Amino acid sequence: MSWSAKLKLHHLKILVALAEQKNLTRVSELMNMTQPALSKWLSGLEEEIGMPLFERHSKGIRPTAGGLLVVKHARRLLNELERSTKDVELFKQGIQGSLMIGSSPVATDVVSKAVLALLKDYPNVHVRILENVMTPLLEQLVSGHIDAVIGRVGGNALQLPLNYKVLYTEPICFVARPGHPLAAQKNIDWVQLSDYYWIVWPTGTPIRSSIDHALVDLGMMMPANHVESGSMSATVRMVQASDMVGILSQRLAESFATEQQLVILDLPKIEQKGSVGIFWRQNEPPSDTLEAFLGHLVEASQ
User: Fold this and answer.
1) Best CA proximity match to 232, nearest among 103, 100, 101
2) Which of 177, 223, 261, 275 is the most buried (most CB within 10 A)?
3) pLDDT by 10-residue block (mean), the chain, 302 residues
4) What range(s) does the HTH lysR-type domain occupy (predicted)?
5) What are phi and psi of 174, to 5 degrees?
6) At what angle do helices 108-121 and 288-300 cross, to 10 degrees?
């Protein structure tokens, strides 16, 4: 019998706890077992696998590269079991299936349209939408917490074990509140814009990379007066309540402009573009619900 076949649910929880706590004494207390018993079990598992999972040092333990791999799969299995339990409970309540969606703020418009269309096809499906920047969403996708992520394509996302499909490509633009000193002005130049506080996406996010590259092309630097925000709602509220200017994808900016909540500033076009797409796990066939959602996303992106 292989070592993986001998692992029980309790063992998976121990592995994850060891990686998170990095302390044998603390984990033994959490798992209600003695430290010698925990050390013996871990040593036995490492012997069966044929490699060390954790390095021992004066302050505790830390996972090895191989240990990180085993813990990653243990965490994914635990997440899938948790999802299965919730799906069974939902099924007993008449809900058939669930879909966990991670959405970057730049994709909220297309995601909302696709979810509304999905619910017409699957009225009894349970849908949950989590909004965040891409890095934590992709981590949750890889670990099995969520089923799909919609957001900008690029950076480290393409190096992860994920499938992806580009939905659309669009430029980014600057926005301000209606009544802003620059709102009705034509042919605004970049020097004028630098007189105001900017609200920008956090460093490392795809949309921030887009504006950084665009500024380099323009021979400009990011103004010292800027605020980093990964929250769409906070950004919009700050822009609406002040003379700050924000940066949004054009599709989303046009949606706010149509509702007269924001104004798109008349700046030279930023040629730097970003693609928005959907990511889902490799080596795992998508459910019927996810397949249908993907189809509706493509339609909503046209």
Assistant:
1) 103
2) 177
3) 77 87 88 88 88 87 88 81 72 73 89 93 88 88 89 77 87 91 90 89 79 80 86 91 91 90 85 78 82 92 86
4) 7-64
5) -95, 145
6) 130
